[in-house]
Design a protein that fits this description.
- The complex is a heterodimer of chains A (292) and B (370).
- Helix content of chain A is 74%, strand content 3%.
- In chain A, strand 1 and strand 2 form a beta hairpin.
- Chain A is globular, with a radius of gyration of 19 Å.
- Chain A starts with a helix and ends in a 14-residue tail after the last helix.
- Chain B folds into 2 domains: 200 residues, Response regulator (Rossmann fold, 3-Layer(aba) Sandwich), CATH 3.40.50; 141 residues, Rossmann fold (3-Layer(aba) Sandwich).
- Chain B is 43% helix and 18% strand.
- In chain B, helix 11 packs across helix 12.
- Chain B is elongated, with a radius of gyration of 22 Å.
- Classes of the chains: A mainly alpha (292), B alpha/beta (370).
- Chains A and B meet through helix 1 and helix 10 of A and strand 7, helix 7, helix 8 and helix 9 of B.
Chain lengths: 292, 370
């Protein structure tokens, strides 16, 4: 049973990590706490839901949902945050603006589409499961695990080793200096918004697949966990977010399994407080500011 | 028979000198307080439809009762205001509603103090009729329904059960207490109790633990969305037909099949009513409802339909619009409706669980459990 519980925890943690990737990217580069991030997650799931109902396969619906929510992210970022960036407003201003916007978006979506839970058609993914001794893993879970690995790897490669990544890191370090060096900071901001929106959208589809619970507020429910993961990992730290996501998942599952299920959340959030107490810069303790 | 008695007494009641034509008799005003807007509007809309259908049948030929409908919006204030309006402005003789137990706990004391008989058709929480002597309910509380479900489980050889419930929702939690008492009362061994949050999507830790204990059945008390989530994930983790899933009142919704699909197959749940009951009264009700509203009735419409019939008969027996006489007449109710035989207990709760049917999910829809 312990083996299955560890697998459960890793899979849950992978969903947290998947959600947190784009969130930590926007923070690291753009220095905004963008709460509309949760909405991109919902949007991705809904785009895939509409497409797959119309008969589109997952191989097409997943990238389409990622691109669609990426575009939504660029538009919302331009509408909500351009002015703030120009005025060099602090992080609290972006937090408040995006908080208001995201609540309006969820409520409008609920009013338009209803609060009902939707499921992706069962035909989009086989119901088969991989059985290894005492452990069962479903196809949707394997897909999430694969996607997290590929997306996180790709993101790290992009930021650390590509020319574009150099630009992104330069903007993260100091937008003005980057601009003087001939890097178009506005273009980088658009690109980072698109990337984080697309990551959120893909996450929404995959998590919608694994848990069969697509509804307007699904992003909001992940947001709190996403926050914990991003802070535990060190704001803006992609690797940190991955590890923190997995850790949170395993801790939650093991608490429910061996302590009491009612304490699942209490332990997870106590962990956050404890970490911030002892390591204010996050679990992995590197200096916090301006990293991508 | 009953209809004729009603007509006769109402005619006698209104037969004042100088009034000849029946159409001029003033119908007795009664009120309905229901949630007709907001997230719980579906319940109130179903209740209003059931009441209106029954009213049409009671008033066939001549208007005997006049219904005034007020929307509570699902809030305690809304329910209290609605009741005050109905009593002060419309001088109603009795009120059907409100829809939610929470609303009844706020509105009941008001109508009870004014001595207006108030009948909840969907208020299943414990303690509703303790509000006062004028508060009635026709909704079977969970404490009556779940033991019937447990008995069905026992008849299928269940001995060891695990229980799960949503620990952040009053309805789910009180349903769980009932479930635990009923399981113990039926002689089951409770292996473990696991909780989760109503908005959780991951139940793998709890389910893996339960699977390790290999129970005969898993009882779940939660609203329909998390129940669907639990079932979907249970199938992913390899729970098969050897484990019986037992639902509480929250699982008694067609939405379960819509969300969980065949993952919900085999779940059993007790219900005060079922659309597929084959007795003539029920068949006639379902046909009339479909003809008038163009959709299928649900449990809430059926309970409301019966309740108006019960109230109309009591008003007829009371002989006039005096609320105190109507209250006493209600207590003497002995009637067969679409939910089965109906009487009130001394405490103004439904007396009989004879009408409870145990349903089983099959192919994503409910049918009567074998």
């Amino acid at each position: 049973m312990l083996a299955q519980q560890l697998v459960n925890g890793l899979l849950l943690g992978a969903t947290y990590a998947l959600f947190a990737l784009g969130f930590t990217l926007t923070f690291g580069v753009l220095r905004v706490i963008n709460l509309t991030y949760g909405f991109y997650f919902t949007a991705g799931a809904f785009i895939a839901w509409y497409l797959t109902r119309g008969g589109t396969g997952l191989a097409l619906a997943l990238p389409a949902a990622a691109i669609g929510s990426g575009i939504i992210a660029v538009i919302l970022d331009a509408l909500l945050l351009t002015r703030l960036r120009r005025a060099r407003a602090d992080e609290l201003a972006s937090l408040m603006v995006t908080l208001g916007a995201v609540l309006a978006l969820y409520a409008a979506m609920t009013a338009l589409l209803g609060p009902d839970i939707r499921r992706l058609p069962q035909s989009v993914l086989g119901s088969g499961a991989l059985v290894l001794g005492p452990v069962r893993v479903t196809q949707a879970q394997l897909l999430i695990l694969g996607a997290v690995t590929v997306l996180a790897g790709g993101l790290v490669w992009l930021v650390r080793f590509s020319r574009l990544g150099l630009g992104i890191r330069a903007v993260a370090e100091n937008p003005d200096a980057a601009g003087l060096m001939g890097i178009d900071a506005a273009r980088i901001a658009v690109l980072v918004s698109f990337l984080s929106g697309a990551l959120a959208g893909a996450g929404g589809v995959l998590i919608g697949l694994a848990f069969n619970a697509i509804q307007p507020y699904m992003g909001e429910q992940m947001m709190l966990r996403g926050f914990v993961v991003v802070i535990l990992g060190g704001l803006g730290d992609i690797f940190g977010a991955m590890l923190a996501g997995l850790l949170l998942g395993v801790v939650e599952v093991l608490t429910a399994a061996y302590l009491a299920s009612g304490f699942k959340e209490a332990v997870a959030f106590a962990l956050l407080v404890l970490v911030l107490w002892t390591r204010p810069a996050g679990l992995f303790g590197r200096p916090p500011p301006r990293r991508a | 028979m009953r209809r004729r008695a009603l007509m006769a007494s109402l005619a006698a009641l209104a037969a004042a000198p100088g009034r000849v034509a029946r159409a001029q008799e003033a119908p007795i005003p009664i009120g309905l307080v229901a949630v007709l807007s907001g997230p719980n509007a579906a319940y109130g809309t179903a209740i209003r439809a059931g009441v209106e259908l029954a009213l049409g049948q009671v008033n066939a030929g001549a208007a005997r009762l006049r219904l005034i409908v007020e929307d509570s919006g699902g809030s305690k204030d809304g329910a209290i205001n609605a009741a005050r309006k109905l009593i002060g402005r419309d001088r109603v003789a009795a009120i059907i509603g409100p829809t939610l137990s929470n609303e009844m706990f706020a509105m009941g004391p008001v109508t009870n103090a004014r001595g207006i008989p108030t009948i909840g058709t969907s208020t299943t929480a414990g303690g509703i009729t303790d509000i006062g002597p004028f508060i009635f309910r026709t909704a079977l509380p969970e404490a009556d329904v779940i033991p019937v479900t447990m008995k069905k489980a026992a008849s299928r050889g269940v001995k060891r059960v695990a229980l799960m419930y949503a620990n952040d929702d009053a309805f789910s939690k009180s349903g769980f207490e009932v479930m635990r008492t009923a399981a113990a009362g039926t002689g089951f061994t409770i292996l473990t109790v696991e909780s989760f949050g109503s908005r959780d999507t991951d139940f793998s830790a709890q389910l893996t633990k339960i699977k390790g204990l290999a129970p005969d059945a898993v009882g779940i008390s939660a609203l329909v969305e998390p129940v669907a989530g639990v079932l979907l994930q249970a199938r992913q983790l390899g729970f098969g037909r050897e484990t019986l899933f037992i639902g509480g009142n929250g699982s008694n919704s067609p939405k379960l099949g819509q969300i969980a699909g065949t993952a919900a197959d085999g779940l059993i749940v007790g219900s005060p009513w079922f659309i597929g009951k084959q007795d003539p009264l029920n068949l006639a009700f379902v046909a009339a409802f479909r003809a008038r509203f163009g959709r299928n009735p649900d449990q809430f419409a059926a309970q409301a339909y019966d309740t108006l019939g019960i109230l109309a008969a009591a008003i007829a027996r009371a002989g006039n619009a005096d609320p105190a006489r109507i209250r006493n007449a209600l207590l003497k109710t002995d009637r067969v409706g679409v939910m089965g035989p109906f009487r009130f207990t001394e405490r103004r709760d439904p007396a009989s669980t004879e009408g409870v049917v145990v349903l089983e999910m099959q192919g994503g829809a409910f049918r009567i459990a074998g």
